[in-house]
Amino acid sequence: MGDTFIRHIELLGYEKRFFPSQHYVYMFLVKWNDLSEKVIYRRFTEIYEFHKALKEMFPIESGDINIENRIIPHLPAPKWFDGQRSTENRQGTLAEYCYTLVNLPHKISRCLHVINFFKVRHDDMNPVTDSQIKKPEVFLLTKDSKKNPTDITGPIVLQTYRAIADYEKSSTSEMALKAGDMVDVVEKNENGWWFCQLKNKRGWVPAAYLEPLDGPDESEEQEPNYAGEVYVVQKSYTAVEEDELTLKEGDTIEVIHKLLDGWWVIRKEETTGYYPSMYLQKAGEVNTSVKSELRNRGAPPRRSTIRNVKSIHKQARKQISQEAYRRNSRKYKQNQRNMRGNSQNKANVIIEKNEPEDNKPKAQPAVPPRPSKDLILNRCTESTWRKIL
User: Fold this and answer.
1) Tens digits of residue pLDDT in 16-49
2) Residue 30 lies in a domain
3) Which 3 state secondary structure label does DSSP give 267?
């Protein structure tokens, strides 16, 4: 048993392939202890043979000696003919199997049999294809269906993007690009890293290096929200460009524009600037280990830092200057202050008009006139006479 081990295995979906004959393979995202992430492809027959060998290696834990001691999960045998329906219906069981497998005692989950089976093979990076036969159909699990993996999407037509400049990868989990390359996007992450495939290659690519084929403007990109969403800085960052912000871990800020390249426009008091979205977390959200590990990856490059950009679109991509962000942000905050001031004044006026009677000053009683001597002598007692006369 070596130092290498698997942290997590996630079922992404499956592919329907047509070469050398029609068959199905499951797609797994395997996360290793060195923080690398690899996508692998396995037929169910392979997975079942792996499972049988694992049970033979650990007969006690597989329940062969005493069923009560079983901790290795069950896995149904392959059917005589595995079609699309059985491939689809089996995903819930398979996702649960992988989750349980990784969380078994280390002597099982970190044994060489498990490590070697989930390692990247040559066929994972360079699957055997035939250019004369149509491309594989990809069926991805939706976010909701990961909670209920029996629900699966239909055949997905992956979006095709074009590389606007050369990109040299900096880790094995990334993919290098040449200007003009056409890539299919499998997953778009809001941190600015997109998982793409190009012919036989797959890997993470900075979204800033990609442009859609149908136009320069990203319809998926949200409009600025100057009201702001409260986020907390999870990792410090020192500004490199003039329009970026330097923040420390624990700082509270407001996000006013979420951009697809992973660099969001944020506001700290009266100051605005760019900050890597992967270092931010929405206020109130729980900090998971997966999010923490993602932050160890470097921030993706910004669109504005890419050199020798060659777009296929004549019209430039819509951009907002940093000065416009500052001006609009200040204007919004000033309007909010004015509205609060006006509402406070109106409230004061209402209070004055509806002031209760108890708070109004009461009229003082009139002092009665002093009685005359004759009146006192006629109506008062002798003791009163003596005090007054």
Assistant:
1) 888 878 889 999 999 999 888 899 999 999 999 9
2) yes
3) strand
Q: pTM value?
A: 0.52
Q: How far apart are the first and last CA of the chain?
A: 122
Contact of 63 with 70, CB cutoff 8 Å: yes
Check: CB of residue 326 under 8 Å from CB of residue 257: no
Helices 91-102 and 44-57 meet at what angle, rounded to 10? 40
Q: Give a yes or no: residue 36 inside a domain.
A: yes
Tell the burial category of 55 from Cβ atoms under 10 Å away from its Cβ (0-12, 13-18, 19+): middle
**Tens digits of residue pLDDT in 148-165:** 443 444 444 577 899 999
Pair of tokens at residue 233? 């800085």
Could you give the 3-state DSSP secondary structure of residue 50?
A: helix
Which two structure tokens, joined as six digits, stand for 189?
Answer: 């992450």
Residue 274: inside a domain, yes or no? no
Domain count, the chain: 1
What is d(CA 175, CA 129) in angstroms, rounded to the nearest whole number? 20
**H-helix segments, the chain:** 44-57, 84-89, 91-102, 106-109, 112-117, 122-125, 289-294, 322-353, 373-379, 382-388
Q: Identify whether the C-beta of residue 51 lies closer than 8 Å to the C-beta of residue 93.
A: no
Domain range for residue 114?
Answer: 6-124
CATH of the domain at 100: 3.30.1520.10
SS3 call for 146: helix
> Does residue 72 sit within a domain?
yes
The DSSP element (H or E) to which 259 belongs, if any, is: none
Q: Residue 97's Cα: distance from chain center in Å?
A: 25
